[in-house]
Amino acid sequence: MASSSSAVVAGLTAAALATIGFLGHRAAANVPPDLRRPGADAAPAVREAAPGKDHPAALPTGSGRGTRVVYSLADDRVWLVEDGGKVRRTFGVSPSTVDPAPGTYRVTSRSGSVTGSDGVPVEHVVRFANVDGTVIGFSAAVDGSAPELDPAERTGGIRETRADGAAMWKFATIGRKVVVVP
């Protein structure tokens, strides 16, 4: 009985720590650029994904096989996955106002730096889908800002930090598989 009670406490502790980490990440993503510490954009490499669907770094089941980018619409999270299922990096993102349908896509184009659909200069743009004329892709704002979404505006930029954008840029070359999960 005592070992079963210990397992429950350990499970609850792990869940609480995962929740605190996730909430801390979301809060840090909303800090105005002028209040950030120098180097705060530098995200650490991924922690090994723990098993369990509730852990924010756990790779979603049914997200395909092989080397791929996985984007979860519900979790606003991306995983860069190597062949064999090893997660190279995972990070939270700020979604666009237009979502691609769940499914498998390929990286179709990339741009080093452009102006985003919201008028903000962005870098490391990796495009993979088109929804009714709105191009969908990952990018990082040069000023480190997160988009201010206006539901009336159709935007396709999925915003990531500059450090995450640099990692995506190296990983998601033309033709790389992108799996979108609900």
Molecular structure report:
Residues 29-66 are annotated as: Disordered. It comes from Streptomyces calvus. Residues 40-49 have a biased composition (Low complexity). Helices cover 21% and strands 30% of the residues. It has helices at residues 2-29, 162-171; strands at residues 68-72, 77-81, 87-92, 103-106, 109-115, 121-131, 134-141, 157-160, 177-181. The strands form two sheets. Strands 3-2-1-9-4 form a five-stranded mixed β-sheet, covered by helices on one side. Strand 1 and strand 2 (77-81) form a beta hairpin. The chain is globular. The termini are far apart.
Which features would summarize this protein structure in a list?
182 residues, alpha+beta, L,D-transpeptidase catalytic domain-like, five-stranded mixed beta sheet, four-stranded mixed beta sheet, 9 strands, disordered N terminus, Secreted protein
Brief synopsis:
It comes from Streptomyces calvus. This protein is α+β, with helices and mostly antiparallel strands and 182 residues long. The protein is built from two helices and nine strands; from the N terminus they run αββββββββαβ.
**Count of individual helical segments:** 2
Q: According to CATH, what is the topology?
A: L,D-transpeptidase catalytic domain-like
User: Architecture, CATH level 2?
Assistant: Beta Barrel
The count of β-strands is: 9
Strand order of the largest sheet: 3-2-1-9-4
Global outline: globular
Q: What structural category do the secondary elements indicate?
A: alpha+beta
Write out the CATH superfamily name.
L,D-transpeptidase catalytic domain-like
What Rg, in angstroms, do the CA atoms define?
A: 17 Å
> Can you tell me the CATH class?
Mainly Beta
The low-pLDDT segments are 2-54
As for the number of domains, it is: 1
Measured between the Cα atoms of the first and last residue, the distance is 39 Å
What kind of sheet is the major sheet? 5 strands, mixed
The SSE string, one letter per element, is HEEEEEEEEHE
On the 0 to 100 scale, the average pLDDT is 78
What amount of the residues lies in strands? 25-35%
Helix content: 10-25%
Region (Disordered): 29-66
Biased composition (Low complexity): 40-49
Organism: Streptomyces calvus
Protein name: Secreted protein
